[in-house]
Predict the structure.
Amino acid sequence: MFAYVFIGILFLFVIVKCIQYGWHRKKSLDPATIDKALLGMLNSERDQA
Amino acid sequence: MNKRNSKTPVFLKSYDKTKYRYEKLKVCKKCHAFTILGDTTCPNCGKPHLIPVEEQAERNAKHAMHTTVLIAVCIGLISILLSSTLLQMVLCGIASIVLIGVLWIVQRNVLDAECLRALDKLFHANEKNVQDGIIHDYKAAIDNWDTDKQRCYEMLREISTLLHNDMIRIRQLTLLQTFLLRKDMDLELEPLLVRKYEPVLVEYIGELAKIKRDLIKDRTFQYIMAYEPEIMGQEQGRDILTAVAGATVRMKHYVRSYSGLVRRYAYNLPKDRFLRLYQMIEQYPNEDWGRLSEEVMRIYTEKYQWDPDFQQKGQRGHTI
């Protein structure tokens, strides 16, 4: 009985993880955005005239 | 002439331009220090554990995925251990294998996206380390200011990939002016444009106008025009402005866009540049050259009316 409960937990775990991965992929960052964010991080306080 | 003789001939390493700037950043596997300089040895701990940030992000993403698979395997094993019959055990085993297999396949498909997420997370979680690393690199570059100017410039050039401020640009320009610049050198201009009038930048532009005109583009022309009065006041200012005006002549778009600049210095242009300008205006008489065409004709009449080089195409009358 408890074996099937854990299989159920495993099933839900895998489903949740797959949904999470799918969501991440849908909202995936593109490299250009990361690049821009990095530049913003490094130059926000330093980019003075 | 004396100024040229005091310049140092150098052979700058070529600058490897990456598609994304973060690709130049490296991180130490041991101390997690970031650097844009150095190949494999960490400048912070001295260990040969530097890797590109993308590689570190991939490691982080894969580590997270392996942890997920491990948790799934543990749950599967628990279900098998809790089975009371052989049939239950077999069913739980098969279900575990199928579910973990599905998880593994999905992870493989989303690896690229997860790596990018891990990279973004890496930067945000280590913001201070990245900033400290770049500052450390900058200090290491400046340490070479007096002893090895070439190395200093090369290091600043790398750092300027990520740090965009006029202080670094001016330092680079100051160093460039100590080098004997050549046509075959891997030089840049637009990334070095500063916001305010800077004589050392103007001198550099003047040099490039002679050896690498193709680097002078719209932003540079706009900078020159914005600070034209100040440039006229500096040493060899007029010569620099004339050279920049000569650089416009390589494209009709530039001559048309900056016709005022060209008109003001057309009289002092070298013959070959003036000839090209003259031929351009001759070839496109219906373009809106403003007062430039009148000035060019006036100069032609005064200086080149009897020059055979100008007669090859100029058979029409050129009265103003």
User: Anything to note?
Assistant: DSSP finds two helices and no strands in chain A. The CA atoms of residues 4 and 35 of chain A lie 47 Å apart. The longest helix of chain A spans residues 2-26.
